[in-house]
Amino acid sequence: MNHNRRNPRNQGAALMAVLWIVALLLMLVTSTAMLVMQDVEFDATRSQIFRARLLAETGASLAMHPDIQPDDPLLHQLLEGDEELHVEVTGEDGLLNPNVLLLREDRDSWRRILRFWGIQDLQTADAIINALLDWVDADVFERSPGAEARAYGRPGFPFNRPFRSVEEMALVKGMHLVEQAYPSWRTWFSVHSSGVLDVNEAQPEIISALTGADISLARQFRARRLGPDGIPNTRDDLRAPDLSIAMSRLGIAGNPDYLAAILSVNSATRRIISSARVGTLQRQLGIVIQGAPGTSGIGAILWMAER
Questions:
Q1: Predicted TM-score (pTM) of this structure
Q2: Which region, left, alpha or beta, applies to residue 87 given φ > 0 means left and ψ of -120 to 50 means alpha?
Q3: How far does the chain reach from its first CA to its final CA, in angstroms?
Q4: Mapping DSSP to helix (H, G, I), strand (E, B) and coil, where does residue 188 land?
Q5: How many other C-beta atoms lie within 10 A of the C-beta of residue 58?
Q6: CA atoms of 247 and 61, how far apart (whole Å)
Q7: Of the candidates 31, 81, 92, 102, which lies 20 to 30 Å from 159 by C-alpha distance?
Q8: By C-alpha distance, which of 261, 289, 98 is closest to 189?
């Protein structure tokens, strides 16, 4: 008997074991390679995120410089290495500050605003105005008709302090009617604006609703302010230089000195939106800061957010 002859079963088992080990090694090599590639991609992405964030911060810093105007070419740059920077600077006072309007108890303005939004019934409008007033005042006495704690039936409602965000206004009793009538009402407000409306920055609808100016004149005023290209913050913009001229163009009667408490042609606060792109990654930095565009010094930062 030949004892050197190998058993075919043993040979097959050995071959299977070798193939299994080779397959396992291939899997390990592939997994390792994938992990290495993921680490490399992660590092590259992290580097791009950092670069984009740094570029956005640089754009915001540029916009804060007193010598930089909103139309300065430095705020719109195509950089080397597939990078872009675009910075928009606008007057925040083109928006209404709800806290200031309520502090003044400016019912006429609120009624015009609500009427513009589609709330035509005077009783309904007054109930909403009273509910807004009850929300921001410090006392617990309910106006008639108004809304204090009993009207909400929820602990801590109303907050009895000024609004800290526009979204908070949606919590007020009766604002669901505004939501139904005019869903974009939030775009009219900012809790960071000074409360004196900059007619050079405001949309025609806001100007018309606040002042009673004819909407067609308000739209003509806006078109003139944007200039022939229709784009804000470009060389052809034609801003109203003073309140008297602005009032004349808008057909608003009255003493400019008296109306200066509620209207202006310059913003005391500005909004800076700095958008940066590095490769396929984008970062945006938003800041609201005290001080009109082009003025000296850096005021307090009222709001800042990054995305």
A1: 0.80
A2: beta
A3: 82
A4: helix
A5: 16
A6: 35
A7: 92
A8: 98
Residue 289 · residue 300 · CB < 8 Å: yes
Q: Does 158 sit behind a cis peptide bond, omega within 30 degrees of 0 on the bond before it?
A: yes
Per-residue pLDDT of the chain (307 residues; tens, 9 = 90+): 455 555 666 666 666 666 667 676 677 666 665 655 555 555 557 788 888 888 998 989 888 887 888 888 889 999 877 889 999 999 999 999 999 999 999 899 999 999 999 999 999 999 999 999 999 999 989 998 989 999 998 899 999 999 999 999 999 999 999 999 999 999 999 999 999 999 999 999 999 999 999 999 999 999 999 999 988 888 888 999 999 999 999 999 888 888 888 999 999 999 999 999 998 889 999 999 987 665 555 678 899 898 8
Closest CA to 196 of 211, 182, 212, 186: 211
> Residues of 80-94 as b/e, b for ≥16 C-beta within 10 angstroms?
eeebebbbbbbbbbb
Cis peptide preceding 145, ω within 30 of 0: yes
With beta carbons less than 8 A apart as the criterion, state whether 131 and 172 touch.
yes
Are 138 and 160 in contact by the 8 Å Cβ rule? The answer is: yes
Residues with Cβ within 8 Å of 243's Cβ and at least 6 positions away in sequence, in order, are 256, 259, 260, 263, 264, 265
Strands (E), 80-168: 83-91
Q: Give SS3 for 68.
A: coil
Q: DSSP class of residue 156?
A: T
